[in-house]
Amino acid sequence: MRIEEFLDALASGAPVPGGGGASALGGALGSALGQMVANLTVGKKKYACWEGEIRELLGQLGRLQRRFLELAREDEEVFAPLAEAYRLPASKEEERAFKEQVMEKCLLDASLVPLEVMRAGLETLDILKVLEEKGSVMAVSDVGVGAQLARASVAGAAMNVRINTRSMKDRGKAEELNRKADEMLKRGMEQADAVYERILLRLS
Amino acid sequence: MRIEEFLDALASGAPVPGGGGASALGGALGSALGQMVANLTVGKKKYACWEGEIRELLGQLGRLQRRFLELAREDEEVFAPLAEAYRLPASKEEERAFKEQVMEKCLLDASLVPLEVMRAGLETLDILKVLEEKGSVMAVSDVGVGAQLARASVAGAAMNVRINTRSMKDRGKAEELNRKADEMLKRGMEQADAVYERILLRLS
Fold first, then answer.
1. Chain B contact set for A162 (CB, 8 A)
2. Sequence-separated (6 or more) residues with CB below 8 Å from residue A101
């Protein structure tokens, strides 16, 4: 899809794409920036000592970029049945029971995808931290931008976990997912802010 | 340009697109999400009391989305001559003087574009704050995601101001631009974090 088309579809009131897809795309931008830094580092004499490690990270970031795009698509796939489930009738007792059962399954699916976006965001941030230390100094500002975009993917996806778990009837499961999201959110923000602050200091 | 193409161009070692374009695209995603929330709010009886205001914000966000894409293009336009200027010869005295003069102009141009991205990011955050209060509660998580992406555009662009001003010879001008960037960075982060925290609390 063209960038303008995606933005216009996002801006519309259509059910998808939404915040889930936008978070995943933010992560894809962050992992692409990491690759750019790695590409500007490999093959340079100055960084030859960790050439192998940077090449390895380059491959991992490429897989993360594809994973984020996959997750953006999955987010659309799990949202469509959820939007339909909301519209199921619930005037009779057996209708209510059926709707609740369908909703529960859809809400769980719609919570698991943003949790995966958070996981991919954290992996991206781990790699950006290494690139902050070992990547080309010429591109250090791009590591900082990448960290901010990966941070947005983690924090954005946390919103989508919350909006779905809050309607789940199985509160035990909901709280388990919330705890996972909270833990990843805290870790992602700390990691991103530390990388960003250090780079800001280096550029000051 | 298609999304995958842009990501692959970003991931490559080519001089453009880079962190500047990625920051601008983050802002475009944030303003598109704001429009989505506004579109889900207008025409609903529940929000009829501020229909006019939301319609006005919808138009502003549309203009901001286009502005971000324009700035992404401008960022490429100002980076190309800068990359060339870095390669100018500087072995003789008059070559050095000429190179310095060209560099200074290019660095200034390359600092002004990300400052504009920061400005557009702040405007987006101001509108998202209103949507947090007056937008459809059904889409409140999308306001939070939008705030994170707009935050990334502000903080990401601040990196690009810094990386360019640090090489400027005119330190007075450089410090003036840095002060502007610092002030906007602080304001953008505070605004985004406040909106995000309040929404997280509402979803808990």
1. 141, 200, 203-204
2. none
